[in-house]
Amino acid sequence: MSTIDELKSTGLKATLPRLKVLEIFQKGKQRHMSAEDVFRVLLDEHSDVGLATVYRVLTQFEQAGILIRSNFEGGKAIYELNEGHHHDHFICTKCGKVEEFYDEQIETRQKAIAKEKGWLLQEHTMSLYGLCADCAKGAQLQR
Predict the structure, then answer these.
(1) What's the pLDDT tens digit per position in 89-105?
(2) Is 116 annotated as a binding residue?
(3) 77 and 108 inside one domain
(4) How far apart are the first and last CA of the chain?
(5) Going by C-beta distance under 8 Å and a sequence separation of 6 or more, which residues neighbour residue 136?
(6) Which residues form a coiled coil (predicted)?
(7) Annotated binding residue at 89?
């Protein structure tokens, strides 16, 4: 499905700012981006899309189910493409890197605990905070 078709299927018109923002998420190297990250990419591309427009487009995409918003440490909103599958996150407390992971045993255990407690899970997120491999190496070198 093309970018224009994807937007139209959600009921959004294919405006230039929307197309540019969606393309950044679809083709960019970075999967998890804040509004400021998206804006920086647009500036690097010499685009005339303003920061307020970026915020508006990200909110529209979240409401349309195109993007998923997460609030990691510090309450900063981070967006990623909604690819229809669940995953959890590692977040580096030093450099801010976000890495996705999925573990069937963890998912199974969470469901079992919810069932034991009488809860019916509808949704969940799990974020683990620490040092990424690169920052951990640097920390070990400084000791």
Answers:
(1) 999 999 888 899 999 99
(2) no
(3) no
(4) 51
(5) 130
(6) none
(7) no
